[in-house]
Specification:
Blueprint: H1 4-19, E1 22-27, H2 33-45, E2 48-52, H3 55-64, E3 79-83, H4 88-100, E4 105-111, E5 114-117, H5 118-125, H6 130-169
Antiparallel strand pairs: 1-3, 1-4, 2-3, 4-5
Length: about 170
């Protein structure tokens, strides 16, 4: 018979999964308290949040939400990092922290209805931020229009230069 505390924890896990755009699973064994606080702060600054739940309660919440099976990731101590906004920012915060602290291990994650392995999470962490990607897209879209404007203005510029050259000679 499940206790009310466990039922509440499962409900909290379900709420976190529902509200997050992605969830990254990490093993933070071996981190000191200060390192854990630094990791949490870095994740918070990247618009994410980190929780540690029991694996069996997380598995129940995953099953209740009819999400793909993540049993292979729910082995050993697991911390859940939820991305509220940009999914790459918390992944980047985790990856950068893992470079400095070998005790942190990226297990994998969950995004867009798919379970991802650790390599996929690291690739997502390497992506530019959402704002940079939007800027790149706008640059690509604007390029042909700028070229067309220059092409259309070319004859007028040439005529103006020719008139200016004649005026300079006179």
């Amino acid at each position: 018979m499940p206790t009310q505390e466990k039922i509440d924890q499962v409900a909290q896990i379900e709420e976190c999964f529902k509200n997050a755009n992605a969830c990254w699973l990490i093993d933070a064994r071996g981190l000191s308290v200060q390192q854990s606080q630094t990791l949490r702060r870095n994740i918070r600054e990247a618009e994410g949040h980190m929780h540690i739940f029991k694996n069996n309660l997380a598995a129940i919440a995953i099953k209740n939400l009819e999400l793909p099976n993540m049993d292979e990731l729910l082995v050993g101590p697991t911390a859940f990092v939820y991305a509220d906004g940009d999914v790459a920012a918390p992944a980047k915060a985790i990856k950068d922290f893992a470079k400095e602290n070998e005790a942190l291990e990226i297990k994998g994650g969950f995004m867009d209805g798919e379970v991802l392995d650790a390599d996929a999470v690291k690739k997502i962490a390497d992506l530019p931020s959402k704002e940079v990607l939007i800027g790149m897209l706008l640059g690509v879209m604007q390029g042909p229009l700028v070229g067309l404007a220059r092409c259309c203005a070319g004859p007028m510029e040439a005529t103006a230069r020719a008139i200016q050259a004649i005026a300079d000679k006179a």
